[in-house]
Design brief:
It is built from 11 helices and no strands. The protein has one domain: Hypothetical protein, domain 2 (Endonuclease III, domain 1, Orthogonal Bundle), CATH 1.10.340.30. The chain has 178 residues and is mostly helical. 62% of the residues lie in helices and 0% in strands.
């Protein structure tokens, strides 16, 4: 069975993500929030659907500014539910808004979302899943696993024989030092 390293090359949406983002360390809280929000929205759908809608998501969610999205109220929620450019699922939209507020609180308590992640790293996946379920909404095992792999906290985004693997290792993601 083919995996992402086999499917992504030459694909107009998958290749740029695979080659330049997937598995690389992410340091910006807004970028980490975006990745979590996209993983939540992917649940039950294809990753290609999310990648095709990514620009619309960025526009709809104020470039995934944690500060702005955490302050969304009912007016913004209704705007998002009416936005045909994104995935209009009330549970997912509510989770993204709620999780922005959680991340804002984590920033206050830990200095940043990234510092919170670093504080808990390394954990086995099952412990990460429990932690995320206690902390965030709409974060099951697959979402947590993909979020952590995609942001460099867990190994497995690329096969070792994939050319991108060496580029990621050179960036020293969190899993390299564990």
């Amino acid at each position: 069975m083919a995996d992402y390293c086999d499917l992504a090359p030459t694909h107009p949406f998958h290749q740029p993500y695979h080659d330049n983002e997937y598995g690389f360390p992410v340091t910006s809280d807004d970028s980490l929030f975006e990745r979590l929000a996209l993983e939540i929205n992917q649940a039950g759908l294809s990753w290609l659907t999310v990648l095709k809608k990514r620009a619309a998501f960025r526009q709809a969610f104020d470039e995934f500014s944690v500060v702005r999205v955490a302050d969304y109220g009912e007016q913004e929620r209704q705007r998002l539910l009416g936005d045909a450019g994104i995935i209009r699922n009330r549970l997912k939209i509510d989770a993204v808004i709620h999780n922005a507020g959680v991340i804002r609180d984590l920033q206050t308590e830990h200095g940043s979302f990234k510092h919170w992640l670093d504080y808990h790293h390394p954990l086995p996946l099952n412990d990460w899943v429990r932690l995320f379920k206690r902390t965030f909404r709409f974060t099951g095992p697959e979402i947590v696993n993909e979020f952590l792999m995609s942001t460099g906290y867990l190994q497995g985004a690329h096969r070792e024989d994939c050319p991108v693997y060496a580029k990621i290792v050179a960036c020293r993601p969190a899993w390299v030092d564990t």
